[in-house]
Amino acid sequence: MSAGTLLELSHVSVTFDGFRAINDLSLSLAPGEMRAIIGPNGAGKTTMMDIITGKTRPDTGVVKFREHDLTKLDEPAIARMGIGRKFQKPTVFEELTVRDNLLLSLKGLRSPFALLFAKETAEEKARIDGLLHTIRLGREAPRQAGGLSHGQKQWLEIGMLLGQEPDLLLVDEPVAGMTDAETMETADLLREINQTRSVVVVEHDMEFVRALDVKVTVLHEGSVLAEGELDQVSNDPRVIEVYLGR
Amino acid sequence: MSPRFSRRDFTKFSLAASAAMLAGVKGAAAAAPKGEPIRIGVLHSLSGTMAISETTLKDVILMLVELQNRKGGVLGRPLEAVVVDPASNWPLFAEKARQLLAVDKVASVFGCWTSVSRKSVLPVFEELNGILFYPVQYEGQECSRNVFYTGAAPNQQAIPAVDYLLSADGGGAKRFALIGTDYVYPRTTNQILQNYLKSKGIADADIMVNYTPFGQSDWQTIVSQLKAFGSAGKKTAVVSTINGDANVPFYKELGAQGISATDIPVMAFSVGEEELAGMDTKPLVGQLAAWNYFESIDSPANKSFIKEWHDYTKNPKRTTNDPMEASYIGFNLWVQAVEKVGSTDHDKVIDAMVGLKQPNLTGGTAQVLPNHHITKPVYIGEIQDDGQFNVVWQTPKEVPGMAWSPYVPETKNLIGDWTKSVSCGNYDTVKKACLGAKHG
Amino acid sequence: MNASLSFRGASVTAVIVVLLTGVLAVGSLLPASSPVQVSPFIMTLAGKYLAYAMLALAVDLVWGFAGILTLGHAAFFALGGYAMGMYLVREIGARGVYGNADLPDFMVFLSWKSLPWYWWGSDHFPVALLLMLVVPAGLAGLFGWLAFRSRVSGVYLSIITQALTYALMLAFFQNGFGFGGNNGLTDFKDILGFDLHSPYTRAGMLFISGLILAGALLAARYVVGGRFGSLLIAVRDAESRTRFLGYRPEQVKLLVWVFSAVIAAIGGALYVIQVGIINPGEFAPANSIEAVIWVAVGGRGTLSGAVIGAILVNLGKTLFTAWLPEMWLYGLGALFMATTLFLPQGLMGLMRHLPEKRPSEVTPEVTNPEGGEA
Amino acid sequence: MADVAMSGPAALSGRKMRNGVRGIFAAVLLSLLFIQPHHARADEDAFAGLATTQFNTIASSVDQIAQQGGPRALPVLRALADRKLFAAREGDGLFIRTDSGWADARSGASASPDEETLRPVRVNNRVRLAVAAAEAELELVSGTPAERQASANVFYQRHDPAMLPAIDKALSKTDDAALKDTLLNARAAALLSPGAPASDAQAQQQAVAKLKAAGGLDARGVLAQASTSEALDPATRKAAEAAVSSIDFKLKLWGFGQDAFYGLSLGSVLLLAAMGLAITFGVMGVINMAHGELMMIGAYTTWLTQKAVLSVVPALGSFSLILAIPAAFLVCGALGIVIERGLIRFLYGRPLETLLATWGLSLILQQVIRSLFGPTNVAVVTPPWLSGSFHLGGIEVTIDRLAIMIFAGVVMAGLMLVLRRTPLGLEMRAVTQNRRMAALMGIRTARVDALTFGLGSGIAGLAGVAVSQIDNVSPNLGQSYIIDSFLVVVFGGVGNLWGTLAAAATLGVGGKALEPLVGAVSGKILLLVLVILYIQRHPRGMFPLRGRGVES
């Protein structure tokens, strides 16, 4: 493992009921890098995310984040270590207000017992205001999150990720169901985030990936099929076969 | 379907009855009761697990009330039954008892079946100085001034039953399996029986005691254990204090495993006609039960009681049983006491009760004893294939009920006596003192 | 305003509870001749309802706010009741039937020679209080720690809570267990030297119950109202999401679970003092299910609704078992069906909608959101 | 499993055994107390004693009748056993009630006594025992081969030394190996019993060896008694003691098999009770608290069917149970469809609220049955072909339990077939897996929902039929099964029928294995705790469904 690596998966495999979802996958990410992961359905993209975030334990292989072995840790521990994850379907706390959603996400207090007696500090308020500005939801702050539009929910979730102040963001299909304009805005947002944090984006939308303009990894049947610039990858005959063949 | 009988119906009924009598209907022997009705409470579960046994007792009291009103009521006033449903819930029993006594101001209460329901209402009756007639055989070891125990005490059921099993006619058993549901009645009864059997020379090794939870429905293991217990080369008998619900699967399993009454007789204290009505009795012929009443006993009073019952329930197949007779005796004793003192005042009625006599349905007389228990004849019946019992043995005369068992070391010196001279439910005859805090 | 904030009325309810119990307590001390005298019957009923309201409040905390459908909460209620019952039984002392100062009647009865070790100290009120809090909290803590840690959820959790209370019921039914078997503990005489049957004790107990219920309401409101409450609702609606934020939902659930068990246990203790009997029937799974129904009738997730539901359903039960002894089950059954069909948010939902005439809001259903990400 | 093979000849001989099982132990005592003081003289009227009211006189009269023999002995004894023998209240007239009228007991000629003056001859267990023994004595000589075998069994169980001459006589007259073996056992047992004629140590020890080889509880009883009998040689007593422990050891080994049978039979009851719930709850996600009440209604349907058949075609009475199976399925299935259409369908997507609504429904159903048929138990008769037991080696197999095991297997197989092989099953799976997609493909989801719930309810009805054979049939029936049913489904893994099967078997066998060790109550508590702990380790039960969208 080279010194300049933030996240490294080496020879990871996982099997569900005889089905190899991830097959000897190796991947590494440099600090500050943004990476797009593409691949057909069933290529193992979501499972890979699950493994990194501790939801699924691999059968074999090592997952390292800085010097920590993630396969030994569970989701909250990994999250506290600085890995944030955004789900494919926007998952926000619908009954809470936008503001409360962000408040819960803020890095800091995690013990339920401490939370019992915690009061919102001025510093926290400032951070929330900042986040609201970043995700362009300032006017929606007192609303229940359940009443937001689909795109707004996506942003709120990204805002919650930012509130966690992670070093690495895993983003699963952030633009599914968005309008073209929203898609482009999201790409801008991610690039902005990438200035301070590493990002892994899983996405189908090629226009969006193109707009991100980052290194691309193609997954197929649980392992890496190709890696490189989008143009270079999209000309790879194996990739073309996987996407268009058969 | 049993006829519904709410308070309002009842008032309507008594009005109608009065009207009919005023109009001179033939056969109206007594004057129609007039004036403010005397209320009595009926505290039996009509839903939940105990409804199966208790609903019948509610019907009996309603019938007796109707009959009494036809005879002219009590003190010339009509009786009115206040029926409540404690729903087989023991704290609810206490609540309903309080309601009957404090809100409905009933003159007396007829109710309870399980020991726990009685224990639950007891403090209420003592606090509010009510009168409870308790019509079910029970474990004894209790003697409250406010309760009249018209069912059997252990010495009026369990002891004679075991005597029968030990006798030649009963098979001369030398080995006893005491099986019961795990609650206070079987625990106490079995404790008394164990001591009694030992006094009769039965060794510890020849007594097996087994307890099962309420509603036990799978008896395979226990019945096979009984079989094994019975294979020691000695005549073996079973004394069953299994609670109502669990009896059906128990007897079904006995039948299925081929144990008949001639192999290992089972003497039951909680299986009566009502329970048999829910069973196919062919495999049970010859199994035994000890009671103070059987429907099959041929006596004029019993015949007419059964007829009234069939007329009242409009069901010629509805069975009668022991707790029904106990309710009948309790009700009539109360009526006598009220007529005697000319008042429903609780203290006066309680004091007037001791010594009163009421003919049993099956012959003989029930007399109220100073300990608020009564004298009862004891019968042993064998189950027949028609769902009735055939009486094979009976005590020569009535047995007086003992509140405290002489076979339990802690209570052998205790007596209950609520007459003026002693006025104590738990009087220690050795220490010459009333124990605890229960003074009349 | 919105469904999740509907517990704001809890403080109002708390005040009403204190006022009402105060009025009842004073009313009960009036001479019997007074037309507004409150009879002891009403007093014992009111005491019972308040105790049940505590249980309902406890259920609402875990079901309404943490999404844990408990079918075994009566276990904690009954354990609290037994702890208090043990003390009350020891208070009887030599005034029992057998006049035995050392052993409770039921032990003499079964020929026990000495007190079992777990009865030691039960004659001291502070010990009883400690037992009342520690035993249910300990059991809840152990059970919750095991269950939440291994992410048992949904119906699986519901069924094992039911299994828990069922197992306890069977255990307490055994006479050999040392708690009076089926008969339970009863025939109490006094508490801390006050005669339990005296009108003053009754009035005092009712008022104390009212204060405790009000206190529990406020405490519950504090718990669900703050940041912990937000987290609780977050865990209820999207448990896995909270995990990726770095929270440990099992800790959140455990905390509220134990808190709720303690409230239930205090309810049980108040129940025993005022109803006068505790027996294993209180552990019956049906009792736990009924407690859930009270909450549903009153309105889940509203705190006040739990209290109102418990009182109304039990009041109905009291009245109908007397008025329509053979028909009341039809009424009760129909009430439960009608509530779920027509009042999905219970009476509190109805109250919320009537004045505002708004189309009914859809309550987000507490289905487990993990489903989508298998 | 050898289930099918057992029901043939083994079952037959099992029933024969049962006929003779009367009076194993009672007989021991009878022989003790019943030392007959006089030998019957041929001219004495042995029947006269029957007309008395004393049980001991009646019983000794029965013995006399048996010893005298004669053509009237058997008919009179049988009439006595069937309670068809009547005595005149005055005098010693004895009459038998026949189908057409009355017959004189002593002559068999038809008679017309005044019925008002008659009373039934009293019978109790003591008399019954005497009748059984007397019948055996008479039939051993004159009966059919089957009757003789049964009589020999009675002799064996009765092991009365007074019977030794009769046994020897019968032994000399038979070549039937099985009969001979039973008689030899009977002879050995009689030799070791109190009151036996003095015999040498060798003969005694041969008898002990014979009984040791025979094994079983009957032999154990005799040997246990012999081991303490002062009348026997000390060496014999020792041998008997050793034989008892050898038999006990064998019984203990067989006991494991017996416990397994009990466990499987309990498991099959649990399986039947849980299977319907596995559909309504496991597949549809409805927390159906009224499931137990549907079982209860199935049991009442059985009762009603039985009553109807008995009143219309009494001859078919014993087969009414067969008829009750489709009846209960249809009644409960139809009721299930009504419940689904009237209640459940408004609650889809709110699974926890189905719990509250169906709980209310269960209260109402209980009360409806209570109002219609009363609060007490009703008697469902077990037909003769389902009663009794037979031995499979040292395992006693009760026929009703065996039938329930087979029935549970058949229902399970049928359910599997419906789910896997029928269009309804396919549609059911489609709807539960993806309702919207199924609807788009033209499946009428409302109809499928109703039918699925109906199917689950119908199976609950079938469980009711089975349960009516072994348990109370009362309005409370459902309450006693509902908790166990849910436990089974959840323990097995919601939505997985194989899991339900495995859980039912585990809980059944586990419960029955624990029961002899710690008692019924503690066993059940222990089992509940184990299930709780198991679910902590495996939060989705024994056979968790994998894949998406299975969680409710």
TrEMBL record, chain C:
Domain of life, source organism: Bacteria
Principal subcellular localisation of the protein: membrane
NCBIfam families according to UniProt: urea_trans_UrtC
GO cellular component: plasma membrane
Protein name stated in the entry: Urea ABC transporter permease subunit UrtC
Record organism: Acetobacter aceti NBRC 14818
PANTHER family (alphabetical): HIGH-AFFINITY BRANCHED-CHAIN AMINO ACID TRANSPORT SYSTEM PERMEASE (PTHR30482), SLR1201 PROTEIN (PTHR30482:SF4)
Transmembrane segments: 49-82, 126-148, 155-173, 203-224, 254-273, 293-315, 327-347
Entry membrane topology: Multi-pass membrane protein
Classification of source organism: Bacteria, Pseudomonadati, Pseudomonadota, Alphaproteobacteria, Acetobacterales
GO MF annotation terms: branched-chain amino acid transmembrane transporter activity
Location within or outside the cell: Cell membrane
Keyword entries, A-Z: Cell membrane, Membrane, Transmembrane, Transmembrane helix
The UniProt record lists the keyword Transmembrane helix: yes
